[in-house]
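User: Quick one: structure for sequence A, then sequence B.

Assistant: Sequence A:
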Amino acid sequence: MKAIPVIVLSILLFSCDQKETIQNEPMALLEMAPTNAIKAVESSDSFEYGSFSRLQYSDDVDVLYEALLAKNERLRSLESSIEKLNSTVADQKDDWIAFKSRNEDYYLAATNYLESITDSTLKEEIAQQIEGSQDRYKSKRDQGEDKWSKLSNQINQLRNNQIALKITLTIPIIESYQGAKSESVVDLKPLIDAQVEIVSEMEELLELT
């Protein structure tokens, strides 16, 4: 569980380092990605609409983030640590659930056995033993639940920071894409000229009727 704050701190420090890189060198993160990173965006689920090619985006945050992972060893290491931690947490959670189930099954069975004792004095003595043992177990269980609750909150915060990191690192890339493509996609003069020509042709045809 101690690994959680360390990884959260690593994400925050990594994000701060990369923000400084963004401020000092706006194109730095774009250069970290493979040359086909933006092409991957452009070719994502493309389809034809009339005579124009249009894009249908799926999840380009992950597309661009994966491109960064391919070029940044430190980022890959961080993601690997998060993945291992999540896997370990899941396994240990299963162990914790099994631990509680086994203990609760035991005390249920012990209570059922208790009912078959016909000696009232012995029955009272065994009942006290069961109650004392069960109280000690409940104390341990409650302490464990408190720890798991705190860990769950830390895991949620870790996930929040991971999402924030993805967005922080990929915004400069998509903005570079915007800068590279914006001129061509808003150059409407050829379309306007074509429209004017068509309207003119239609007007001439109407005059002939």
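Sequence B:
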Amino acid sequence: GFNRSGDGEGGDGGGESRRGGRGGFGRKTDDGGEQSEGGNQGEERPRGELYIPPPPPDDEKSIFATMAAGINFDKYDDIPVDVTGADPPPHITTFEEVEFFESTKATIGKCGYKRPTPVQKYAIPIILAGRDLMACAQTGSGKTAAFLLPAITKLIKEQVPGGSQAETQSPQVLIISPTRELTLQIYNEARKFTHGTMYRPVVAYGGTAVGYQLKQLEGGCNILVGTPGRLLDFLNRGQVQLDQISVLILDEADRMLDMGFEPEIRKIVSNYSMPETGKRQTLMFSATFPEEIQRIANEFLSNYLFLTVGRVGGATSDITQRIIEVDEFGKREKLSEILSATGVDRTLVFVETKRNADFLATYLSQESFPTTSIHGDRFQREREEALRDFRSGLAPVLVATSVAARGLDIPDVKHVVNYDLPNNIEEYVHRIGRTGRIGNQGLATAFFHKEKDAPLARALIKVLSDALQDVPDFLEAAAEAAVGTNYGPAGGRFASKDYRQGGGGGRGLKGDSSGVGNDQGGFGSFSESATGGFSGSAAADEDKWE
């Protein structure tokens, strides 16, 4: 069978806290389970299973398994870079320019990294200089290595002792991300970059047995990677203290705030002996930073630099995008027709609801396309198994809701299909960003329903045009018909500029880190409602927020 209700949250007291979206809201029940409001018509979730994940591989070959750079990697040298803020350090062009320790140099070699990506060229020296950073870069641009390499280098340089066994741990690096899958991905990268050192990363996320993760934690922890809910659980248990944190990293920061994790983030950042802003280094990475999110983030960072790589919120030209007009009842047959024509190798299909994910996966399997699915109602064990089957090729088609849309590292995805288009253009860009990564060529197909998807038409045209893609006539017509609606201009929420610049922004850089704009100073207090609530990008995944 494909999926069962419940996802292994709660029951052990370690479930993730979730806010809702328009599809429904989840609220905690006394036993650690969860009830749905709206999205699942009041259906009560059963208690989850106690899942203990398989141990990660210890052999060097598996640890350093990487994705080869595609034929277009050289094009990254021409991507514009923009830095704003006071006195940025010079960027690098090669890894050899950085005084990495021998263990880090060896790791870089084993990873197969020949030269830094644009975000790494600028972020690595900024982080090594001890500056706070807000970084916007395309998905798949090497963001994780951009913050892990310098963070680990700082541990070595400061001669921080390796993790040792203790009931309460005081890590030096804390990394927070919104989803379990992204958290696990960052943890695996941290294992790679700490290989050959004394430093120990530990992961904390919902859906797995708390006791198992606590045992891993008690074995020693220098780098703690986790989702907000499970981190708060460990902090409230007194198993983790934050007084030794020197580097705080928020990955996919805009999504965490959009998803309603702002109270949890504020609680973590402001309590548990966390060093205050200015006395720790804070790094925020994401693919978009809308202005309202920047204003909230301003409270977490001090005298920071704002780095944008490429078109913020834009799609890479390495992805061939095609938009197909189809009504709701013709989508299944059209998808089957496309898969028959293009093949099923590494095809990621995004749908709006959890229920449809199961129905579509079953349909495709019956049509002889081996398919699995991932969404918030699957047990954590099932979710990880689905990803393993997809990565290995056992199930070359993966049907997913937005739980898999952000930051998920699935090497060499060939084809992304937006079976259901999302409600906003940022989500579309994030979804298609699963393919065409690190310079590889990718294909993205979207089904466009003229009544349902018309509000997205103008934004789609802008994304297509900016990436030098063909714009179909029906999309132009839909955009014309949508004029006068209240959906705003295409891409209006993209954080293309540092909001401190008052709309000006710094000078576009191509290999020049000088002449950037000045920091305009601090700002007054902002209402917590400045986030504007939820973006709606994952609301249709009902009440399941990771």
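Residues 61-309 form a domain with the Rossmann fold fold (CATH 3.40.50.300). Residues 1-47, 484-496, 503-546 have pLDDT under 50 and may be disordered.

User: Thanks, that's what I needed.
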